[in-house]
Design a protein that fits this description.
The N terminus is likely disordered. The chain is elongated, with a radius of gyration of 42 Å. By secondary structure, the chain is mostly helical. The strands form two sheets. The protein has a two-stranded antiparallel ribbon with strand order 1-2. The protein has a two-stranded antiparallel sheet with strand order 3-4. Helix 4 packs parallel to helix 8.
Length: about 600
Amino acid sequence: MARLTKNFESQGLSTQRISRLLRPLRTKCIALAAMHPPVCYKNPASYGSKARSVEFNPLDNLPPPDSVRSYHVDHGSVATLRAAIYAVRDSFCDIVVKTKAPEAEGSVHAHRVPRLADLCSIIVGEHMQADEDFGAEVEEDSDQLGEVEYLYEIIPVQYRRSALLAHALDIILRCPHHCTLLSILLDVSLQHDLYHESFVLIHWLLHASVSPASGVGSGLRLCHSAHSNYLVDLAQKWKGAGRPTGAFVRILTETLVKAARPELWRCKALGKFVRELHNHDFHSFFGMVGELVSSIDDIQPDKPHRNESRGLHKCGPFRTEEISFADQLNRWLNYSSPFGLSHPQDSTPIVEFLERCRQSRVHQNADSLGATVVCWATHYLSEGALSADIHTAISRFGVNETSMGRLQDSRVILQTYASCLRAEHLLLLEASLWACILRFVEASLGHWGTEKEVGLYREQLIELVEDAEQRCFGLSELRPRSLDPCSKATEFEWRWEEIPGCWVQCHLPVAKKVKRHHQLEDDCRHNLCPHNDSSSFELSFKSLVSSALSNRTKLHGHLKRVPQPDPGRRARPPLLPPKPTWTTETPSDDALDLFAYAKSSPSSV
């Protein structure tokens, strides 16, 4: 087998063979560079004669020429562009298959660290092609081809395949970067286990996804509503081929940071990907959160300064983007609770994230984000997971333990903590701190001998809790104000209720929406006579009848119909003499005269 491999490498990867493999690839790339992807095409409908305009989504792959879907989009320049893209893919795949050693077929190799010689051959292959103009077909320069052949001659035979694949991919990437081409080339690289080429292609594909869509509009491709699952599907494809998820997250975050577009961090595709990442790879999730913190810190031209009251910030020109990033970061952090992650292996990325927040002080620029970061920091401070420098920074607060015998000393230390929260304008956390201390003291009243001292301390804590709540809810000028001077008013207000003895939220009155009658006006037809619905008259008549029946005792007597004698039948003599019959007629009390007397009925006339 070793002799077969050596014979393959010496005969199959000669310089003449390499030139014959690269020649059709150059030709196909020149044909692709001459194509300009159209924006909108006129496509006849498949089952009709009416022409319609077909628009493709920015990141959708064009179907291959031999597929069933190709018959529905095979029109005009789309068919030519699609054929040129898949021709380049086939040429690259042909190079990959024909240069693969026989022993590598059907075997799966574990990824290893590439050797220095492999890295050198890859670098040589990436810089072997000189700058060419693919816009026009030009004659190949014999001197240039001679230099390329000379470089392949000096490369050892066992490393020529790495240089050839890097060279072929570099020729393709010099063409216009079409998303379909990058996607199908990535599939080829993952299928044939091309480790370096897959990393290069995923980088270019993510870069193309965050770029503006030419001709479709000024929006970014990834922000399109049809691509909400794009990053999730791409990450699953990457992980299914055995590639590390952390590498994908690192490339994605680097691409997002370099793009420097705020709408990318708020798009639906990234939101779904982050939720999936939080459920499956917690370390990578906090790595991406840390990159978002760095992005917030990078867009600030000047660090925000606080005035003497520490209530206002200095607003820079990127204030809107900064607040938007802070809201997105707070939304990501709320995916998980800090109290459900107490394992040591989960604390490392969280501590690194908190260290980034401490250095950039980004949590001081938004009230909601500041409260969330403080909650995470407080939890992991008690877990003892912080590093030595953070312990040194907080050592000035003192670490002496206090007991219930020295309540006034503990009160001084607790007031130091509360004053720090008040100085950072975290009034809600200050009120929560005093409330928790009061609850602990009330639960300990019956377990200590100095009940009188504990009761006095409890009364002092009640005053401190009321003062903290008054600062947080009572006075509007002391509440945490929004950093944006153009922000809207708060949605909730607080008021003191005497009966429960606490502060409650009172919702602002919501304006009722006026339901408008939907009317369709027709300029050609005007109905001058309004249409009268007969059902309304029927309902009115029924209501009048029911009202008349409910306001009377008996409207008419029951009238018996006298049978008429048959003239052809002999009448029998009566047994008794006939008695006179009297017809009872009760006058109607119907005010509307809806019912007539029996003598006025048509049957009796």
